[in-house]
Design a protein that fits this description.
The protein is mostly beta strands and about 90 residues long. Helices cover about 0% and strands about 50% of the residues.
């Protein structure tokens, strides 16, 4: 069906809050109750790759993108544009 997004049932491992969120190819889920990491989904199954949506409950609040050799967290809702880590290279 067009326009209907699949939902995923998630339980936070810290506070055990249960919530639903949209299913995404590359998504990082944050618990809406305690704001701790709940889980992630990835195309490759080895953790989130970029671009990666950041969701609190079912609301998208930002994304992780790769810009050159730096990963950045970008969020208009949180007024955030922050480089979070350098990507290691073979010549470093």
């Amino acid at each position: 069906m067009i326009g209907i997004k699949a939902k995923k049932h998630i339980q936070c491992q810290k506070c055990y809050c249960e919530f639903e969120s949209v299913v995404g190819n590359n998504s990082l889920y944050i618990c809406p109750k305690c704001n701790d990491y709940a889980c992630c989904e990835c195309n490759y199954g080895f953790g989130s790759i970029t671009p990666c949506k950041i969701l609190v409950g079912d609301k998208t609040v930002g994304k992780i993108i790769k810009s050159g050799q730096v990963y950045k967290i970008v969020s208009l809702k949180l007024y955030l544009k922050q480089a979070v880590m350098l990507v290691p290279t073979m010549d470093s």
